[in-house]
Amino acid sequence: MTRIVIMGGGPAGYEAALVAAQHGAEVTVVERDGLGGACVLYDCVPSKTFIASAGARVAFRDADELGIGTNDVDSTVHLPVVRGRVRGLALAQSADIRNRVQREGVRVVGGTARFCDDRTGMAAHRIAIETNTGETEVVEADVVLIATGATPRVIPGAEPDGVRVFDWRQIYDLSELPEHLVVVGSGVTGAEFASAFIEMGVKVTVISSRDRVLPHEDADAAAVLEDVFSERGTTLVKHARAEKIERDADGVTVHLRGGETVRASHALMTVGSVPNTTDIGLDKIGIEPGPGGFITVDRVSRTSVSGVYAAGDCTGVLMLASVAAMQGRIAMWHALGEGVAPIKLKTVAANVFTHPEIATVGISQQAIDAGEVPARTITLPLATNARAKMSGLRRGFVKLFCRPATGVVIGGVIVAPSASELVLPIALAVQNQLTVDDLALTFSVYPSLSGSITEAGRQLMRHDDLD
Ligand SMILES: Cc1cc2nc3c(=O)[nH]c(=O)nc-3n(C[C@H](O)[C@H](O)[C@H](O)COP(=O)(O)OP(=O)(O)OC[C@H]3O[C@@H](n4cnc5c(N)ncnc54)[C@H](O)[C@@H]3O)c2cc1C
Ligand SMILES: NC(=O)c1ccc[n+]([C@@H]2O[C@H](COP(=O)([O-])OP(=O)(O)OC[C@H]3O[C@@H](n4cnc5c(N)ncnc54)[C@H](O)[C@@H]3O)[C@@H](O)[C@H]2O)c1
User: Fold this and answer.
1) What is the pTM of this model?
2) Is 308 known as a binding-site position?
3) Tens digit of pLDDT for each residue in 181-211?
4) Which residues does the UniProt record annotate as the domain Pyridine nucleotide-disulphide oxidoreductase dimerisation (predicted)?
5) 330: which of 64, 116, 379, 443 is 20 to 30 A away, CA to CA?
């Protein structure tokens, strides 16, 4: 029986464990916090639960326009209740995952794992576990999966203290909403938290190191979000890098490179993550981490050392829960001799949970504009969609990209309140190489926002006829 040890129980680790157990391996997962990992306990699940509360407040605010008077009712945010939901849901989800994994016969050890091979080049590997109860155990494995995830990056001089300066894992500890929150960093994490606090009625300033929010996302989508931010009175400080944060009894002063300062009551640091790869004994097996400390893997999750795989955020390959889980599964299928297709990143669907949401799949507009991928494109503003009008939606759009000659769908972007749900038909089309004709001939419900997707297909099909 193949002995498999998995270091870390996040989406990469626990999904791998389920696959390995299904295929009859003897599986041990070592996790120092709780199953589900940082994804479930601190990052993805808590942030989306928090955002759900902000969304409820938005619905309340927007009701006025639809003829439902709410002026005389106060929509106060009860932060302790929100925090209770955030924590409770994360713990419940973690417990569900633990039960599921244990039901499949996986051994779960609470503790911290590191390699302790006597020398490099061994066929089997030794892993020392410092258990959470203070004992040390050494286990041998034929196959090891490193799935140790990542941790919030800390800027020296701007260390979070959990009182005035927070990272995204501590922010739920606030007992009341900040008077003025400065969000440092405008990547996906920064944009999501800025949006949630803005929608909860907090004054927000966003510090962006680039010329816009969401520098890695679709530029038109980012422009919509900036519009919403500005409408809600948010200040966006562009081309700015925070170097130091001073705190006093009343608040924080963020010092930017170049000498300017931003004053606020609290600061939230969203300046990226660093991989958890420094203390796991990589030198004992001969793995040299790549740039930024990430572990280099190929498309079936192999590292440079035989029998050792890596998956998830510690590899720096698209830092998404869905990608982590797929990398973990692929590693196990490969290790256990199953037929496996290498991971295809061009078909990954992702969503930024701002208000409105931004969902993307496949080739980006940026790659098309740069001439890297030939494509025909269409953008349909939601303002022209009947259902959007009925719901009072004025912002947002559907974009569709297809191959010039064949009309095969290669990507798309949706900006809408429920973009994460709407993007699936485009993801299905990209994954299965469907054409704009396939979309165009599909019945969508009338009236519906998804009608804009089939309409986008029709508009690109019409262009086809002119070729
Ligand atoms: C604020 C935020 C929101 C996000 N929202 C989304 C989202 O909506 N959708 C999405 O797809 N992705 C989202 N992500 C990204 C997603 O959370 C990560 O891609 C995902 O957590 C990666 O999973 P993982 O298994 O690699 O690592 P993790 O989830 O980080 O799990 C790794 C686990 O390993 C443990 N560990 C580390 N070292 C050791 C060791 N030596 N021994 C034992 N255990 C160890 C860690 O404590 C941790 O519990 C979000 C990220 C952030 C920061
Ligand atoms: N909804 C989701 O799926 C979701 C949500 C959150 C995060 N994630 C994923 O997690 C990964 C990390 O995202 P992230 O936003 O946490 O990190 P990031 O690294 O993408 O963004 C951090 C931003 O902070 C900026 N920055 C760094 N130092 C700064 C400074 N001193 N002052 C001002 N700005 C500074 C960086 O230039 C960068 O733009 C991404 O791959 C993202 O897709 C996904």
Assistant:
1) 0.97
2) no
3) 999 999 999 999 999 999 999 999 999 999 9
4) 349-456
5) 116
